[in-house]
């Protein structure tokens, strides 16, 4: 599956318009980093990708099982350690409207780890760059 995202940054410091297909969002940096805090910063977008993909993947599985889960909450904390070239994603998942037993929770943990963004982040990643 190929995805194309285009980011355009003009002269307004760090205010970036991002387009993917027919959708658009704004990214920016916090005020203390020179931005205007008018959108998610790039690290928040990365954590958002994992959180939203996890929630959607779990919803697909839960719907298929016909479990009556009103809401899936996924919170992702991202800590970046540039000096050691390590990043740690802490993912906290909770469910509203149902009590799930240990076996169900164990299965849902496997499903969460099977989310496509989780798999990308835990695989070997290569970034190829060209200037045009």
TrEMBL record:
> What is the official name of this protein in its record?
Putative redox protein
Which InterPro entries has this protein been placed in? KH_dom-like_a/b, OsmC/Ohr_fam, OsmC/Ohrsf
The source's superkingdom equals Bacteria
Which Pfam family is one of those matched by this entry?
A: OsmC
């Amino acid at each position: 599956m190929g995805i194309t995202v285009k980011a355009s940054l003009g002269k307004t410091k760090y205010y970036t318009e991002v387009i993917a297909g027919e959708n658009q969002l704004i990214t920016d940096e916090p005020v203390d980093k020179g931005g205007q805090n008018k959108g998610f910063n790039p690290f928040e977008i990365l954590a958002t990708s994992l959180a939203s993909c996890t929630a959607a993947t779990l919803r697909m599985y839960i719907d298929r099982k016909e479990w009556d889960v009103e809401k899936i909450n996924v919170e992702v904390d991202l800590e970046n350690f540039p000096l050691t070239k390590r990043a740690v994603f802490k993912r906290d998942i909770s469910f509203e409207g149902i009590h799930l037993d240990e076996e169900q929770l164990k299965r849902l943990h496997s499903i969460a780890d099977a989310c496509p963004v989780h798999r990308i982040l835990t695989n070997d990643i290569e970034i190829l760059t060209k200037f045009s």
